[in-house]
Design brief:
The protein has 115 residues and is of the alpha/beta class. It has a domain at 11-88: 3-Layer(aba) Sandwich (Rossmann fold), CATH 3.40.50.2020. It is built from 4 helices and 4 strands. The protein has helices spanning 23-34, 54-59, 75-78, 90-101, and strands at 11-19, 40-48, 65-69, 84-87. The chain has a 4-stranded parallel beta sheet. It is globular and about 50 Å long.
Length: 115
């Protein structure tokens, strides 16, 4: 893994579509902190699969926080890891389905998130 760019004293945000065992995320955090001098590392994940020893790996990692959606059931894992934070996307998905069903614009949701 190679770091390109200056992250010294910065909060780094890692973005990924899915995290399975979280090995790559943990390794990336180490590289950013050790080689780049980053201040913090936060991950934003769309789909948190979190299989195998992912929770243990996250707990033992230098990641500050992992923010993910509830596109997969992770409720039981939230209590096992205080670094894990979940965003509820149910209202957004429901509104997208409603708009598709009624022939309305789905791109409206890009700038207007339902609550």
């Amino acid at each position: 893994m190679v770091l390109v760019g200056d992250v010294k004293d910065k909060i780094c945000i890692l973005v990924d579509d899915m995290a399975d065992t979280c090995g790559t995320l943990c390794k990336a955090a180490d590289v950013l902190l050790d080689n780049g001098g980053a201040k913090k590392v936060v991950c934003i994940i769309t789909h948190a699969i979190l299989s195998g020893n992912a929770i243990e790996r996250i707990n033992n990692s230098r990641l500050d926080k992992i923010i993910c959606t509830n596109s997969l059931p992770i409720q039981s894992k939230l209590s096992q890891c205080n670094k894990l934070e979940m965003i509820d996307i149910a209202p957004t998905l429901a509104e997208a389905i409603r708009r598709l069903h009624n022939g309305e614009s789905v791109s409206y949701l890009f700038n207007n998130v339902p609550e």
